[in-house]
Design a protein that fits this description.
Oligomer: single chain
Protein name: peptidoglycan glycosyltransferase
Helix content: 25-40%
Pathway: Cell wall biogenesis; peptidoglycan biosynthesis
Distance between the termini: 88 Å
Keywords: Carboxypeptidase, Glycosyltransferase, Hydrolase, Membrane, Multifunctional enzyme, Protease, Transferase, Transmembrane, Transmembrane helix
CATH class of one domain: Mainly Alpha
EC number: 2.4.99.28
Family: In the C-terminal section; belongs to the transpeptidase family.
Shape: elongated
Length: 724
C-alpha cells in the first residue's frame, strides 16, 4: 500500500510539475495549454490506477468468503412428508434450522424487501444512493445514523459478524456483498438471510423464530406475524417479544406502515394486523418421535437432515394416547406403541414412552427396545407351528382340564377350566392348558428355534434350560420384535424387516418366516374372532393380549392386512402394578390406535389349500390330540414316524414347466409310525387316511411346499421341499 501511495503522489507531482507560483500569471500559449491538459489526463489515469490497485489489494487482504456460519446448521429429523419431528441445537448452542425462501410465507418475503431493500432484485449487492445518504448522515452527525445496507450486505455482516459500525467495517461489507452477488443467485442470498438473521437469544433464522414465537412453521403467517418477523432482526435483543413485547409491537407496526405505504396491504389489513397479540413467551421446539430421532443421530452422527418413515400426525396422536393411557393406570407407569406398515416394513409411528421428558415415568427409556415378559402374547406362534406341522387344525378338539406336565401344572388366568374346546376357541380365550399341551408336543427348543429363525432376539434365564413356561411368558422379548412377528402373520408367514429410515437399509433382517401361509392365515382368522374390549367392535382386527407374571407387563398386538400395531404398558423399573392386564389396560389403547390410524380394516387374504372344515369333518388324526388313547402293542413297538421321501430341503423336478405338467405327481413315502397315515401338503389333506405308507400329490404349480404326515397315534413329521 505504501508503494501505491508513492505512485499516487508522484502522479500528482508530475501533473503540477513545472508550475511555479506567479503573482502575475500570463496566459499560456495554446501549445502550453495542451501540455497541461495532457498531463492532467495522464495523471488522472495514473491516480485511478493507483486507487484501483489499492482496492484490489484490500480485497486480496480480506481473503475468500468464509461460509462457516452458513454451514453450521442445526440437525433436524423429518417425517416421511418432510415435516419437522425434532430439531437439535447446533454445536454452538444456537437454533439455526435449515430454511429456504420456498418454505416461508410469500407475504413475509414481500414485507422484508419493502422494509429492508426495495431494489434487492435489481442491484448487484450495493445501493450507491443509500450509501451516499448514510455517508452524509455520518459526516453531519459524527456517527452512523443509518447503514444504507442492502440485504446482501446484511448477509455479509451475518457471515462475518463484527461489533463496530465504522466506515472500514462498511467497506468490508461492500466488498463481501459484491463477492456474494458474483458467487450466488438472488434466491441463494435470500436463503442465507432467512437462515442467519438474528431473532434474540439463541434463535437464528426465520424458521427457528416462527417455531419459538408462534409454535408453527413459517409456511403460513398472518400479516402481523410476518411483520413481526421482519422487524425483529434490526435490534434482536432489544425487541425480543418474550422480554420486550412493547418494543416488538412498535417494530411490527412500523413494518406494517411501510407495507401499507407500498401497497402490499390495505389500511383495513394493517389495522387488523396491529390488533394481533404479540407473543410474550417462547414455545418449546417440536419433540416428536424423540427416541427414534436419538437412534437416527446415533446411527449417523454426521448427517444434518434425517428422514424417517414416520407419519408425524399419527405420531403426535399416538404420543398423546400413550400419555393418557399411562396416566389412567396410575403413577410411574409408561407406555409404548409401535406401528408397522405390513407391505413395506416401515415404522409409521414409534412411541417409546409416555413422555420423553417425564422422568418420573422413565420417559428417556425407549420401551420398544426393552426386553419384557410377553405373557400370553406368544401363544399364536405355538398354534401356528402346530398347524404347520399337521399336529392340529383350528377345529381340532383340545382339553382344557387340570393337567400336569412333569412338575409343571399350568392354570388359566381366571382359575377356571372350559373342558373340551376347539383350538380356535382355546386361542381366542387364551387358555393356558391347551397351549402348553401343544407346546409339549412341539417341544420348547423347536418353538424357540422358530422364533429365533424369524429374527426375534429372546432373553432367557441363564441358569435353566427352556421349559414349557416359555409359552406363557417365561422369557423376554422386545415390543419391536413382537410387532415384526405379528406383521409376519399378516404377510402370510414372512416376517418383514423393520425400515426405520427413508432411503436406508432395513434395521432388521428380512425374508424370514414365522409360519407357512396356511398356518399364518389360520392364526389370523382365529385372532380376528377374539372377543374385543368394551370400546371396540368384534371381527375388525386380529389381535392378542398378554399379561406377564406378577402384573408387570400388559401387551396388546393387533393387525389387519395393512398395518400391525403393538402396545405395551408397565413400569420401566419392572415393578408390579396390581390389576394391570393386557385386556383391560392395553387392548383399549390398541383399538384406539387403529381408529387413529384411520381407514377401514382389511382382513388378511386367504391363501390356497386352506382346509375349511368342522371338527366332525376333519381327517381323523386332526380331530383330537389323542394323548389319552391306550397304546396298542403295535404302537408300542413301532419305529418313529418319519418321511422317507422327499427329504427335507429337496428340490424335486417334476417338469412343471413343460407340456403335460398337469399330470406330474410327487410320490410321498413314510416309514415307521402306526397306520393309517394322513398326508397333508401346506395344511390341506392329500386324499383320505390310508393303510399304506405312501401317497401321491399333484401340485398346481412350482414353488415351496410343506409336506406333513400324521399317524394313528397323532405322531407327526414334516419336511419343506421345492417342486419345479
Amino acid at each position: 500500500m505504501g508503494g501505491r501511495s508513492t505512485h499516487a503522489r508522484t502522479a500528482l507531482s508530475w501533473i503540477v510539475g513545472g508550475w511555479r507560483h506567479d503573482p502575475h500569471p500570463q496566459p499560456l500559449p495554446t501549445r502550453g495549454r495542451g501540455v497541461v491538459v495532457r498531463r492532467l489526463a495522464v495523471g488522472a489515469i495514473l491516480l485511478l490506477a493507483a486507487i484501483g490497485s489499492g482496492v484490489w489489494a484490500y480485497v486480496d487482504a480480506l481473503g475468500p468468503l468464509d461460509l462457516t456460519a452458513a454451514e453450521a446448521r442445526s440437525t433436524v429429523v423429518l417425517d416421511r412428508d418432510g415435516r419437522l419431528l425434532r430439531p437439535y441445537a447446533a454445536a454452538d448452542g444456537r437454533w439455526r434450522l435449515p430454511v429456504a425462501a420456498g418454505d416461508v410465507d410469500p407475504r413475509f418475503i414481500a414485507f422484508l424487501k419493502a422494509y429492508e431493500d426495495r431494489g434487492f432484485d435489481e442491484h448487484r449487492g450495493v445501493e450507491p444512493l443509500a450509501l451516499m445518504r448514510a455517508a452524509g448522515q455520518w459526516l453531519r452527525h459524527g456517527r452512523v445514523v443509518s447503514g444504507g445496507s442492502t440485504l446482501t450486505m446484511q448477509v455479509a455482516r451475518l457471515l462475518e459478524p463484527r461489533d463496530e459500525r465504522t466506515p472500514r467495517a462498511k467497506a468490508r461489507q461492500i466488498v463481501r456483498a459484491v463477492q456474494l452477488e458474483r458467487r450466488f443467485s438472488k434466491t441463494e442470498i435470500l436463503d442465507l438471510y432467512l437462515a442467519l438473521a438474528p431473532y434474540g437469544g439463541n434463535l437464528e433464522g426465520v424458521r427457528a423464530a416462527s417455531l419459538a414465537y408462534f409454535g408453527r412453521e413459517p409456511k403460513r403467517l398472518s400479516n402481523g406475524e410476518a411483520a413481526l418477523l421482519v422487524g425483529l432482526p434490526q435490534a434482536p435483543e432489544a425487541r425480543r417479544p418474550d422480554r420486550f413485547a412493547a418494543a416488538a409491537r412498535r417494530a411490527r407496526d412500523r413494518v406494517l406502515d411501510r407495507a401499507m405505504a407500498r401497497g402490499l396491504i390495505t389500511p383495513a389489513d394493517a389495522e387488523a394486523a396491529r390488533a394481533e397479540p404479540v407473543p410474550d413467551e417462547r414455545r418449546p421446539f417440536p419433540m416428536l418421535a424423540a427416541h427414534a430421532a436419538d437412534a437416527a443421530l446415533s446411527e449417523r452422527p454426521g448427517e444434518r437432515v434425517h428422514r424417517l418413515p414416520i407419519d408425524g400426525r399419527l405420531q403426535a396422536s399416538l404420543e398423546a394416547l400413550a400419555r393418557e393411557g399411562a396416566e389412567r393406570q396410575g403413577p410411574r407407569l409408561s407406555a409404548a406403541i409401535l406401528v408397522v406398515d405390513n407391505a413395506t416394513g416401515e415404522v409409521r409411528a414409534h412411541v417409546g414412552s409416555a413422555g420423553y421428558l417425564a422422568s418420573e415415568r422413565g420417559g428417556a427409556l425407549d420401551m420398544t427396545a426393552s426386553p419384557r415378559s410377553p405373557g400370553s402374547a406368544l401363544k399364536p406362534f405355538i398354534y401356528g407351528l402346530a398347524f404347520e406341522s399337521g399336529l392340529a387344525h383350528p377345529e381340532t378338539m383340545l382339553d382344557d382340564r387340570p393337567s400336569r406336565f412333569g412338575t409343571y401344572a399350568p392354570e388359566n388366568f381366571d382359575l377356571t377350566f372350559q373342558g373340551t374346546v376347539t383350538a380356535r376357541r382355546a386361542l381366542q380365550l387364551s387358555l393356558n392348558v391347551p397351549a402348553v399341551e401343544l407346546l409339549a408336543e412341539i417341544g420348547p427348543p423347536r418353538f424357540l428355534a422358530r422364533l429365533r429363525q424369524a429374527g426375534a432376539e429372546l432373553f432367557l434365564p441363564a441358569e435353566a434350560a427352556p421349559g414349557l413356561a416359555v409359552g406363557l411368558g417365561g422369557l423376554g422379548i422386545t415390543l419391536s420384535d413382537m410387532a415384526r412377528l405379528y406383521a409376519g402373520l399378516a404377510r402370510g408367514g414372512e416376517v418383514p424387516p423393520l425400515v426405520r429410515r427413508l432411503g436406508g437399509a432395513p434395521a432388521t433382517p428380512g425374508g424370514l418366516a414365522i409360519a407357512d401361509p396356511v398356518a399364518a392365515w389360520y392364526v389370523a382368522d382365529i385372532l380376528r374372532g377374539a372377543p374385543p374390549p368394551d370400546n371396540a367392535l368384534a371381527g375388525r382386527i386380529a389381535f392378542k393380549t398378554g399379561t406377564s407374571y406378577g402384573y408387570r407387563d400388559a401387551w396388546a398386538v393387533g393387525f389387519d392386512r395393512r398395518v400391525t400395531i403393538a402396545v405395551w404398558l408397565g413400569r420401566p423399573d419392572n415393578a408390579a402394578v396390581p390389576g394391570l392386564t393386557g385386556r383391560v389396560a392395553a387392548a383399549p389403547l390398541l383399538f384406539d390406535a387403529f381408529a387413529r390410524f384411520g381407514g377401514e380394516p382389511e382382513p388378511v387374504i386367504r391363501p390356497p389349500h386352506v382346509l375349511l372344515a368342522t371338527s366332525a369333518t376333519l381327517p381323523p388324526p386332526l380331530r383330537h390330540i389323542r394323548k389319552d388313547q391306550p397304546k396298542t402293542v403295535a404302537s408300542t413297538v413301532a419305529a418313529p414316524l418319519k418321511i422317507a421321501f422327499p427329504p427335507e430341503g429337496a428340490r424335486v423336478d417334476l417338469g412343471l414347466a413343460s407340456a403335460g405338467a398337469d399330470l406330474a405327481a410327487l410320490a410321498l413315502k413314510a416309514q415307521g409310525g402306526v397306520l393309517p397315515l394322513t398326508w397333508l401338503v401346506n395344511g390341506a389333506p392329500v386324499g383320505s387316511a390310508s393303510p399304506r405308507r405312501q401317497s401321491l400329490w399333484r401340485p398346481d404349480g412350482a414353488g415351496f411346499a410343506r409336506v406333513s404326515v400324521i399317524d394313528a397315534t397323532g405322531a407327526t413329521d414334516s419336511v419343506t421341499v421345492r417342486v419345479e
